[in-house]
Structures are given as structure tokens and as C-alpha cells.
Amino acid sequence: MAVEKVKKVSLIVPKSESENLLLQLQREGFFQFEEVSFRLEDNEQSKAQALEEAETSLREELSRVHFCLRFLSSFLPARGFIQSFFKPRLQTTRRRIESMEEKKLFYLYEECERLDRRLVEINRRLEEIDHFISLLKPWLSFPLPLSGRVSESVSFFLTTLSRHVYEHLREVLEKEKLAWLELISEKENKTYVAVFFHRELGKKVEKVFSDLELEKVVFDSDLNPSKLSKELLAEKKRLVKEKKKIEKKVQKYLSFLDLLRLMEGYLKARLARVQAQNKLLATERTAFIEGWVREADSKRIAKVLNSSLSAYELVLIDPLPTDNPPVILKNKAFFKPFEILVELYGLPNYWEIDPTPFLAFTFLLFFGMAVGDAGYAILLYISIALLRWWLPFSAKGRQFLKVFTYGTIPSFVVGVLTGSWFGLPTASLPSFLKQMIVLNPLEGSGPVIFLVVTLIIGFLHLISGLLIEAADNFRRGNWQSALLDQVGTIVFLIGAFLYIVIFFQSISGKVPSWSPIAKALLLVGAAVIVLFANRESKSWLGRIGGGLYSLYGMSSYLGDTISYSRLMALGLATVLIGFSFNLMIQPLWGFGWIGAIVALPIFLFLHLANLAINLIGAFVHPLRLHYVELFKQFYEDGGRKFEPLTLESEGVLLKK
Amino acid sequence: MEVFLGLQGVHWVFLGAALAAIGGGMGSAMGITYAAQIAAGVMAEDPDKFGNLVVIVALPGTQGIYGFITAILSLILFGLLGGGAGAKVAAISGFKAFLACLPVAFVCFASAIYQGITSAATAGVVAKKPEATGKAIVLPAMVETYAVLSLIISIFLLLAAK
């Protein structure tokens, strides 16, 4: 189950034809370009400035396209909550993508940017106006122009004061005959006041104000408040009208959205090519291209080269141990959806085995135990079928749903074997279902047996991880490591496991006849670990010390095994919550068919909610058991995904 | 009526069940709040991440469920559910049931809060490195281990108390 084999491609081609070659390779979509890891000596790499400029201008245009897409999309009718999770992808043909060219939609960019700028301006001004109008409101009855001049000798300014400050100020100012205060309006404890004074006394009045730390209210206008307010309202009306006009115009542009997506796809593909050209190694006449293809595509690349180049030199070799080749997981259709779970953690490196098929089985088993209800399995199956029919899932989304669909099978089986149907009491089940019950996890010794089963499954899971690593070591001819590291550990663990069994048996006074075997396994395993775990050490002291430390490290397997008990907790959680929901609606069933009509939708709703809550746990925890407990035994990630040059991109899908 | 430390058996069971539900529920409410606050911040930047975030935010919710299960289970085991409040519970077994509920009451309370803090940090990973979401989701699940263990112990103690 190794990952798919790839070949390293090294190519020398006429420089003038390299651009066309990249285009041909991109059309075929099976070649991953790689930046050459060495440089030509004393070659300035005559980095064509034109190419760098092309790259910059493509990036700029791409960002303008993104802007237009964002701008126009914000005017699309709001989509439903659930629909909003699904990004539209454009299905198109190669010909349509290639019919695009740079700057073709230049006018549209300009127009979108202009309209957006104008809309921002309008909105800002509208906010300003609303703010002004609310500020003017208390002053509306004030008849004088706001410039603050009444005549040659009399001026005024406006201020807001709290009621008692106003009283106090009036007394002070009017007593000293510095100014007189005119109350314009009053709201709650706040007074809106005009302060009139003779110009010659202006400085003194100011001083009184600044001493009391009072502030003036300033409007930048020569009109009186009511006129100013009217003018602002008129402007607002004008702006709202203009805004509507722009929005109408934008609605017309919405039909360009697909074209913009197409342009985005075109620009991205073009950018990938220009970047590749920018990175390839070139002399005056020739270009050196490096990359990867699947082994299966070896012949295909020669074919493409023959048809698009006048001359070339092609070398195909297996990856060297120093390379980091791209990784392609290759699994049978049934296992394909589970590749996502491996990818979520991180792809295996090229030399590691692909754990997908093994993970598929154990993940499903754990998922089944965590859901653990036959009724819920049916409910989940129906829900997924409805979702798939109702929503346009992406390819990845469909794979995820498949994982859950497969998961319904073990859930159903576990549910039947434990007699769990929507958390209904076992006694109320029909007798043929009762007969199929193997273990009732809530009755008698059921819980203990259930717990022991999860622990045994966990132990076997860990051992199988070690076996996989051992097999992988054998495959690579590393039999020493396989025998001393993995097999030694396995022997020790089995011995330890048997010892624990003996311990529990001895509580009840029985010592099984096979107990010497357990002792032997334990000792042999421990000896191998102590003597060989640290065999690279130079001194014997270091070797034995390191070995003893490794032996101590074996205790982590105990914690790892117990960690699997979560499967029991998750399974019981589903059932018990379902059980208590049933209890809550039980009284309703007592009212004949009317009760049933009311109870049935509530029953479905509550159980769907329970299913949804538990699905999160039933997905995350089995995943964790693989990532943390299992992968620790053998898995090395660090692979990078095979990403060929292609015309497809995030928003654009080619029709097959 | 026979009493132990001043309470009847039924009352001890009620006390234990209530504490389990309170501990788990309060812890989960707090934990989810931590995670949801950060998740909301991430969503303000990129609403499309909702799918990943909702899983992370929901993770500290399990402790509330464990508390709930423990409470229900203790009521079921002593026949106190569904109008069975008249059932007789020996005072000492009631007290044992009360003790049995304590692991969940305490561990779920604390672990939900700390799991919430871990989930909040994980939401940051979703924001900055969406491709690492798969690995990051495992981190809050680490904290939950101890809630799971406390639930299992509480269940076994309850069974023994009966």
C-alpha cells in the first residue's frame, strides 16, 4: 500500500519553445513543475525582465478580478444559511478558458472600481448628514445664521450646558453685564443656549468659559439651523437617488460574474505558467525543466514532447533518497473517501506506506461504537441521502458524506448487537430484536464487558500499528529494526497484557496454568528492549541506561490503551441522551392518535439533535485515536501533494 | 426514615445527580464561551470557516453531556426517574451514589473550561493555517480524555453503589 510511484522528469528544450511546451503540459494536466534546485555557475540567469513584469501585471489583474467578483457578489440576492457554505464553481471547457486574454475585461474593472468608490463616498456622506441633522435638532428654533455674527458689534456662540451650570452661568455673566444667555431649547437636564455678547467683551466671556472648562458648539455654515437642515435633507434625497441608480446599474453587471470567474481561472493558469518560466533554468538558447509525473504517465510525456517540440532531451528517473517527491494516494474506490482523513493529518512522505485502507476499517469500527444505535444509523443514512439530493456538495464534501454513509453500517450493527434503537428501553423492543442482542451495556455486568471490549480493541489497534511498522521495515530491508524494535515491543506488550489478566484472575483466587508463558514473554520482551532499544549508543552504560528508559517508556501504552475507553463513553452518551428524550415525550404518546401526531415530530427533532451532537464526538474521537494513539506507532507524514500544472483552479472546473 | 449525615437516601442521590449536572453544565457553558468568542472573531474575517469552527466550538460541550448522563443514570439506577420519587433508597447507598457523582461533577467542570481555552487557541490555527485544522482539532480532544475517564469511573461507582 505504498503511495503511487512517480518519476522525476529532467528536460532540455529549445528556450524559444518552452512557453508553448508549458502550455501543452498545462492542458494535459499531469506534470508537476519543480523549481530546479541548482544554479548555473557564472550565469546571471539573464532573468528576463519581461517575464517578471508579466508576472506582476498578471497578479495585479488577478487582484482586480477578485475585487470585481467580491464587489458584484455582494449584490447577489442573499443565499440561504446552508447554501452559503457552498461556493459556486464554474463548469467550463478548455476552449472557453483559452478564449480569454489579458485586459479583455478592463472596462469592467474600471467601472466596478468607480462605482464602488462612489458608493463608499455616498455612504460616508449619508452618515455625515444624518449625524449633522441629529446635532441640529435642538437648535432648529434658533433664527440667526450660524456664522456667529449678529451685527458689527454683537456676536454670539452656541453651547450646551447642564441645567444648573446654565443657571449659575447666567447669574455670573448677566450680573457682570458681560453677556446674556438665550435658552433655545431644553431636553432632560440639558440646555441648549446661545450666548450673546459685545465684541469688545469677547475675550472676557471666553475666559469665563475656559475657566469653567465649557465647550462651544460650532457649525460650519452661514445658514440658520432650519435652512441648513432643509438643505441637508435635500442633499440626502439626491444621494439616496443616486445610490439606487448605481445599484440598478450593478444589477445589470451581475451577468458578468461568470465571465469574471472564467477570467480568474484563465489568469491563474497563465500566472502558473509565467511563474514556471520565471523559475526554469535557461541559457541563451536552451531551457532546463524539472518536474514530476506519475510512473503511469511516463509514456504520455514523451508523446506530448514529440508533438510540441522540434528537439528535446528527456531523462526519466526514479526519485533519489535525497528528493522529496510529491505524493499521490492511490486506493480502491471503497477506500478513496478515507484518504481525506489521512490528508487532514498530513500526507505520508513518499517513502512511507499509505495507511488509508487500514484506517478505513478501524475508523469505521470506532465510529460505529461511538454512535452505537441502530435507529440513529437509519436516521443518519436518510439524512445524508436528503442532503446529497438537496445541496450541491463539492467533490471533497461528497467524499466526507461517503465516510459518514459507510459509518452507518457499523453503527447499525453495533446498535443491533447492543439492542439500542433510538434509546428505547430494551424491554419495549419486539422479540426478534431482543434475540439479536449480544450485550446490553447497561445491565448487569454489561458495562464491565463493554469497557473490556473497548480496551481489547484499543490494545489490538496499538499492536497492529506496531505490526504495520514492522512490515514496513521488512519491506525496506530493515529487518533488524523490525525484529528488535517492533517485535520486541509487541512481545513485551502481550506479556504485560497477559499479566494484567492473571492479576484480575488471581483476585478471585485462581492462577491460570499458562501464567509461566506470560512471564517468559514479559522477560524476553523486556530484555530485548533494554539490550537493543538504544543500540546506537557508543558505551554499554549508555546503551543499558537508554534501554531501561525505553522500558519505562512502555508505560505510555497503558495510557494509550485506556484512552480507547472513550468509545464506551461516547456510545453510552448517545444511548442515554436518546433514552432521556424518550422519557420527556413519553406522556404525549398516551393521548391516542392526536398525541402521536404531536409526539412524532418532536421525537424526530430531539433524536436528530442528539444525533448531530454525538456525530461531532463520533467523528473527532475516532480520528484522535488514530492520529494520537495509532500514528505514533508507525506513521511519518511530511508528504506534499502532487499538484500538476492545470487549467483548473478553485473557481473553475473543466468539463470532462 | 433512615438518614445518613442528616439526609435520606433519595436526597443523597438527588444531590449527587444535581452536582454532576451542575458541574458539567457550568463547565461546558464557560468552555464553549471561550471558544465561541475567538471563533466569532475568526468568522468576522472569514465567515466561510464556520464549518470548521463549529466543530471546535462544540468540543467543550461534551462535559455538559457527561454531567447530564451521570445525573440521568443515577436517577435511573435508583428508580427515581419518571414519577418514581417514592422509591426507597437506603441512606448509605444514596450516599455512595452521591460520592460516585463527584468525579464527573469536578473533573467535567474543570476540563470543560480548559478544553474551551484549548479550543479557542485551535480556532486561531483555523484562522491562520486552515490546512492544519485536522491536526489542531486533536488538541482539545486531549483535554477531554480526563472527562471521559471521570465519566467511566462515575458510571462504575454508580453501578457499585446500587
Quick synopsis:
The complex is a heterodimer of chains A (656) and B (162). Chain A has 656 residues and is of the alpha+beta class.
Work out the strand percent of chain B.
under 5%
Instruction: Summarize the amount of helix of chain B as a percent range.
Output: over 70%
Which of globular, elongated, flat, extended, rod-shaped describes the shape of chain A? extended
Order of helices and strands of chain B: EEHHHHH
The structure class of chain A reads alpha+beta
The tally of helices of chain A reads 21
What structural category arises from helix and sheet content of chain B? mainly alpha
C-alpha-based Rg of chain B, rounded: 19 Å
- Biggest interface: A-B, 35 and 34 residues
Number of domains of chain B: 1
CATH architecture of chain B: Up-down Bundle
The whole-number mean of residue pLDDT values of chain B reads: 89
* Largest sheet, spatial ordering of strands of chain B: 1-2
Backbone shape of chain B: elongated
Name the CATH superfamily classification of chain B: lithium bound rotor ring of v- atpase
General description of the model:
The complex is a heterodimer of chains A (656) and B (162). With 656 residues, chain A is of the alpha+beta class. Chain A has helices at 18-28, 49-73, 94-98, 106-136, 163-175, 202-211, 225-253, 257-279, 298-308, 339-345, 356-371, 374-390, 395-418, 431-435, 446-475, 479-507, 515-532, 540-553, 556-563, 566-589, 592-634; strands spanning 6-14, 32-34, 90-92, 154-162, 179-187, 190-198, 216-217, 281-282, 286-294, 313-317, 326-327, 640-641, 652-654. Chain A is built from 21 helices and 13 strands. In chain A, strand 8 and strand 9 form a beta hairpin. The longest helix of chain A is centred in the last third of the chain and has 43 residues, at 592-634. Chain B has one domain (3-161): Four Helix Bundle (Hemerythrin (Met), subunit A) (Up-down Bundle). In chain B, 80% of the residues lie in helices and 2% in strands. The longest helix of chain B is centred in the C-terminal third of the chain and has 38 residues, at 91-128. Chain B is elongated, with a radius of gyration of 19 Å. The chains are: A alpha+beta (656), B mainly alpha (162). The A-B interface holds A 84-85, 87, 341, 343-346, 447-448, 451, 562-563, 565-566, 568-569, 572-573, 576-577, 579-580, 583, 586, 613, 616-617, 619-621, 623-624, 627-628 and B 47-48, 50-51, 55, 58-59, 61-62, 65-66, 68-69, 72-73, 76, 81-82, 133-135, 137-138, 141-142, 144-145, 148-149, 151-152, 155-156, 159.
